[in-house]
Amino acid sequence: MNTLKQNPPEFSNWDRVCYMRMALVIFATICLQETVHALPHFFSAKFDDGTEVDSSEIGTRTPLILIHGIQSDPSIWNNFLNYWKASAELSNNFKPYVFGYYTQEFLIRADDPTTVLGLSQRLGSYLQQWYNSPTRSPIFGFHDKRVVILAHSMGGLVARSMMQNFYFADGTRGGEKVLLLITLATPHHGSPLANKLFTLEESAWKDFIIDQLFDLHRDFLGDLAWDCFDGISFYGFCGDWLAKQNNNDTFSNHSHPTVIREKWLS
Fold first, then answer.
1. Which residues 6+ apart lie within 8 Å of 201 measured at CB?
2. Quick one: 242 exposed, middle or buried, by C-beta within 10 A (0-12, 13-18, 19+)?
3. 159 pLDDT more than 80
4. Residue 194: is its pLDDT beyond 50?
5. Rounded CA separation 122/6 (Å)
6. Which residues contact 174 (CB under 8 A, 6 or more apart)?
7. Structural domain boundaries of the chain?
8. Stated pTM of the model
9. Which neighbouring-strand residues pair with 181?
């Protein structure tokens, strides 16, 4: 009886990349599924074990809002929160809260914002809730107190957009509720890299670069595009959204980048 010898299937390098990508996404989705659905978007700061960083009411202190950047999560503030707890000057004057959001393609849910403007509106809505909430546990609301915001990377743009584009129930603009905004490594004029990624031709390679290598939902790219404030454009266009933000324009509709004339910040 003759038996046929079957050769193992041959895979190209691209096939291997695709299968590896699929495996990573499936693995990460399974591992993070519970975390994704359990993590609130705004909360009084907590350590990794879920315990409150500060279990006392706010009293006379100022709310300190921590906002992370892309490819990150609230755990980026762990070292700072340990420092805060050890510092009497900080802990006696500020109570920390955290705003968390998702920028990764596979973590984004149907109701999650995928633009900076959308995130800023969500942030403003949460602040409104905390203004209306009791100061006791577990919410630890802060009534009508103005806040200080410490934000990293794109989180700084989220905070700025809330200050410029959100209005509270009493009619005050977002920025009127903010005593101080501190930004760390925030691309206030955008990033030429975002322009490059935005202009890549549609392909599986583009999917891999944006979704896996940079782990970034592509809808954020338009918001992060360079705004040409210095008269220099990258890859043929300027970031319209940031240009409007930096020129203090208020608007309700999000738009993708278009070619604009250079305007120096006033």
1. none
2. buried
3. yes
4. yes
5. 57
6. 120, 124, 127, 162, 163, 164, 165, 166, 167, 168
7. 40-184, 192-246
8. 0.77
9. 149
Q: What are phi and psi of 110, to 5 degrees?
A: -60, -30
Select the more confidently predicted residue: 143 or 67. 67
Q: What is the pLDDT of residues 68-124, one digit of tens each?
A: 998 889 999 999 999 999 999 999 999 999 999 988 777 788 888 989 999 999 999
The two structure tokens encoding residue 177: 């509720």
The Cα–Cα gap between 161 and 110 comes to 22
85-123 b/e (C-beta count within 10 Å ≥ 16 → b): eeeeebbeebbbbbbbbbbbbbbbeeebbbbbbbbbbbb
Residue type, 186: T
Looking at domain 40-184, its CATH class is alpha beta
Let me know: does 223 contact 188? Beta carbons within 8 Å.
no
Distance CA 188, CA 176 (A): 20
